[in-house]
Specification:
0% strand
Amino acid sequence: MDYKKYFPSIVTGFGAAVLSTIPGLKDLSCCLIVPAAAFLAIYLYDKSMGDQSPIKLNRALSYGLMTGLVAALFTIMFDLLTTYITHSNDLVQGLSQTEEMMRQFNLGTLMDASMNLMEEMVKDIEQNGFSALYAVMISLSNFFILSIFGMIGGLIGMAILNKRNRPQL
């Protein structure tokens, strides 16, 4: 297996994860940073190959998926490390606002059970710097969301690069 072909996805996925740890950019990581990283991975792969053949759908999807998965992996690691060191994160800081918002929906026992789980996670994070349930939740959500947006970025990159760089027939 030629591992050199995966370097663009690994590098851009890591870069996306680093950018997603910056507080102002954190909210844009799924919809803007990861698709841009997947586009950049496709672009770097295309430039490294040097041929003018069109980028195929499966290559665009695989590079986008790989970029999203690498970004998710490193984002999770950075988030858990920061949470462990500071004993705080967005969940801890926003628990009261979340409770107020959920009370407006008037969900009854479902809201009470959800709030109990979140309070338990916050308690674990504040005491130990780690909550297993929180780790599982952010892992699942990041892997799912970032891989989808990575594939979308790969498709956008394929469309733009195929339109720009290839001779029109």
